[in-house]
Amino acid sequence: MREGLLPLLPRLRRLARALAGQVADADDLVQLVLERALARAEQWRPDAALDKWVFAIARNAWRDELRGRGRSQNLFAPEEAGVTAADGASTPAQTLDLAAALATLPPDHREVVALVLVEGLSYSEAAELLEVPVGTVTSRLARARASLQAHRGKDA
């Protein structure tokens, strides 16, 4: 299991950045997820997909963090200039714009975007991980896309 975590790090970082929206928070989340995964290694079943198990830990840890903050958006540390959640954007301006747009989404929509659009999970895989029906994933993703489009339209 430990050897399987190393190749998952880039994907886990992308997920954490999409969920948290802030680099410092994402880094803290990745560290927390790895600590929990290693501490609870005996709970992982070898017949289960390691990435889904780790992503579930990340999702639950982030929800715990949000509850602990009282759903406020306080930061562990200030955002570092120019470093955002969107690694794949082609210019710094697009990166900042995408990160700002993702930050406007409600947490449940951001989760679905992170899992389906960023990590490439299928709707059914995301639904299983989030413990919701596939229709809920579809609906949240549609609303998230509409919100992101509206955000894009404001900036044009």
UniProtKB/TrEMBL annotation:
Q: Which domain of life is it from?
A: Bacteria
Instruction: Reply yes or no: does the keyword Transcription apply.
Output: yes
By its UniProt entry, which Pfam families does this protein fall under? PhyR_sigma2, Sigma70_r4_2
Q: Which UniProt keywords are listed?
A: Sigma factor, Transcription, Transcription regulation
Domain named PhyR sigma2: residues: 7-57
On whether Ubl conjugation is a keyword of this UniProt record, the answer is no
Spell out the coiled coil positions from the record.
none
Annotated RNA polymerase sigma factor 70 region 4 type domain ranges read 97-148
Family the entry assigns: Belongs to the sigma-70 factor family. ECF subfamily.
Supply the name of the protein. RNA polymerase sigma factor
Per the UniProt record, the source organism is Rhodanobacter ginsengisoli
